[in-house]
Design brief:
Helix 4 crosses helix 6. It is built from nine helices and 13 strands. The termini are far apart. It is of the alpha/beta class. It has helices at about 10-25, 70-80, 120-135, 155-165, 185-195, 215-225, 255-260, 265-280, 290-295, and strands spanning about 5, 25-30, 45, 60-65, 85-90, 140, 145, 170, 175-180, 180, 200-205, 210, 230-235. Strand 1 (about 5), helix 1 (about 10-25) and strand 2 (about 25-30) form a beta-alpha-beta unit. The radius of gyration is 20 Å and the shape is globular. It is about 35% helix and about 20% strand. Strands 3-2-1-4-5-6-11 form a seven-stranded parallel β-sheet, sandwiched between helices.
Length: about 300
């Protein structure tokens, strides 16, 4: 039985990872401060990762899956770990500056991205620190992750609009592209890293094909059993105040990922799974006041009126 350490384990990515490997009958440990509900089927190591002391002494892990947000977080964990075989770090596509040539490749120069700011630069420093101390570690750079347990108000926002039979306010012509990756596909790819130990240690991960925001909203509505109607917003209102994503289009080259894992979950099927989870867990999502902003800022549009 493989022994896995997942840092965090209480919110979206780390929680899904912990429960995924517990369901596969791995011996899963989670490291957190025990301030939130714990995932099912795991063992808790209650500690603050920045003050670990002797908390990890005596443990031997086959796999460490880390979602650290800073170089300090990496250093603190590595200093406390006694033994591990594989170290897998969930980084982010936010490490790529918006001005570099797209699609971003793994060797694209890293720098601050104006949309992600400190989040991205902290991930860059975390990567550098990890690979300097542990060159055999794997670094994954996903785009927007979606799926069950997503606590971010992304697809859930569109589901709410659909369930309330609302006309959807779409930024401009709706052709801005988004790239996604289902949380289960992330787990499946980690499986392949553990099994195959490829020579490449940095991977962009994500769906090969992006979708327009219009297509994505339509799929979310269909997943909720509804048809979308739109009001296109051209008046310069800041997009992030009424929509789930920044006004930033980018694409990752995920060809290296697809050499190892040719297949990915169909986006619409993944959104249907997301909706089924959200229907019973809406209280677990950190909701933003997009709907309130729309109602306050824009003239209400009747649900059945299509305006393109």
């Amino acid at each position: 039985m493989k022994k896995i350490l997942v840092t965090g384990g209480t919110v979206f990515v780390s929680r899904y990872l912990a429960e995924y490997y517990a369901a596969k009958h791995y011996d899963v440990y989670v490291l957190n401060r025990n301030t939130k509900e714990q995932p099912q089927g795991v063992r808790l190591i209650e500690a603050d990762r920045f003050h670990l002391g002797e908390k990890l002494r005596g443990y031997r892990f086959d796999v460490v899956i880390d979602t650290a947000y800073s170089a300090e977080g990496i250093n603190c964990l590595l200093d406390a770990l006694e033994y591990y075989d594989n170290y897998i770090f969930i980084s982010s596509s936010a490490v790529y500056p918006e001005y570099e040539t797209q699609p971003f490749q793994e060797d694209t120069p890293l720098a601050e991205n104006q949309y992600w700011g400190k989040y991205g630069t902290d991930k860059i420093e975390a990567e550098k620190t990890l690979l300097k101390r542990e060159p055999s570690a794997y670094v994954l750079r996903p785009p927007y992750i979606y799926g069950q347990m997503n606590n971010l108000y992304r697809e859930a926002f569109v589901f709410d609009c659909a369930l309330r039979d609302r006309c959807f306010y779409l930024p401009r012509d709706g052709e801005m592209k988004l790239q996604f990756f289902h949380i289960e596909d992330l787990c499946r790819f980690i499986d392949l890293l553990i099994e195959n130990k490829p020579q490449c240690h940095i991977f962009n991960v994500g769906n090969q094909n992006p979708v327009s925001i219009r297509q994505w909203v339509q799929m979310c509505y269909h997943a909720a059993g509804k048809e979308a109607s739109f009001k296109n917003v051209y008046d310069g209102t800041e997009q992030r105040k009424y929509f789930s994503f920044y006004d930033y289009e980018y694409l990752l080259d995920v060809s290296k990922q697809h050499e190892l894992m040719p297949n990915e979950k169909d986006l619409y099927e993944g959104l249907k799974e997301s909706f089924m989870w959200y229907r019973d867990n809406s209280d677990k999502v950190d909701k933003k006041p997009y709907i309130e902003f729309i109602d306050h800022t824009f003239k209400p549009i009747k649900r059945n009126t299509k305006m393109d």
